[in-house]
Amino acid sequence: FPGGYAAVMFPLFARAVTVGVLVFADPRIRVGILVFVVGVGFAGGARNAITNRTQASQVVGVITAEAKPGDVVVSCPDQLGPDTDRLMAPSLGVKHVVYPTFAGPKLVDWVDYADSNGAAVPARFARRVLEKAAGHAIWVIWAPRYKTFEGQCEAVLNEIAAKRPGGSDRGVADQKIYEFMGLRDFPAAYRSSAGPQDLV
Questions:
Q1: Element (H, E) at 32
Q2: 135 φ/ψ sector (left φ>0, alpha ψ -120 to 50, else beta)
Q3: What is the number of other CB atoms lying within 10 angstroms of the CB of residue 127?
Q4: Under DSSP, is residue 28 helix (H, G, I), strand (E, B) or coil?
Q5: Distance CA 80, CA 147 (A)
Q6: What's the whole-model pTM score?
Q7: Contact indicator for 109, 116 with CB cutoff of 8 Å
Q8: N or C: which end of the chain has fewer CB within 10 A?
Q9: How far is CA 87 from the centre of its chain?
Q10: Local structure of 83: helix, strand or coil
């Protein structure tokens, strides 16, 4: 986001660099400074291009490999929905909903966002998920510490786990990545020997 906002100021930055370069009378100094500025810009751009900003591909990779048609995927909070949904093939046949609205994952409704999230009831949402997933597995994509969601996604997980024992963590949120997210599955049938597995 900071990079996106800064892009609005780029024309002013380019103008300032131009004026700054023209201050020097010697053309060799001008060219040297310009080459340096352009080189720093390319280095920063390359870093942005290769830096992984999300765990969405890891999480969706596990779901794609193991989910069955009719399974329910929950993104909690809803901000994880668009990033993960774009990687899920429609042919997968899962039902993807977001917390707290139970809406589809393609868009985030930012209207009165904090108030809507504050009024959400994790237990009620979890009950709806359990009803929708009757006979099917539940996959919860989640991340802690999102503003206005403090403790809510954890509460949703606990509510589902109380009714669906045998779930397992399929990956841990790597908080060094900008959009970190974990994945927990709750199988349709009780699985007594499940253990944590790392994302691959």
A1: helix 27-50
A2: left
A3: 14
A4: helix
A5: 13
A6: 0.74
A7: yes
A8: N
A9: 11
A10: helix
For β-strands 138-142 and 182-186, DSSP reports them as antiparallel
Beta bridge partners of 142: 76, 182
Q: Is 138 in a helix, a strand, or coil?
A: strand
Residue 82: cis peptide before it, omega within 30 degrees of 0? no
- The pLDDT of residue 24 is 84
Q: How far is CA 178 from CA 5, 17, 69, 146, 162, in A?
A: 17, 30, 30, 12, 31
Q: Which two tokens stand for residue 95?
A: 């039902």
At position 38, the amino acid (one-letter code) is V
Query: How far is 170 from 135, CA to CA, in rounded Å?
Result: 20
Closest Cα to residue 61, out of 157, 188, 197? Answer: 197
CB under 8 A, 24+ apart: contacts of 157-162: 157/76, 157/184, 159/122, 159/123, 159/125, 159/126, 159/127, 160/126, 160/129, 160/130, 160/186, 161/186
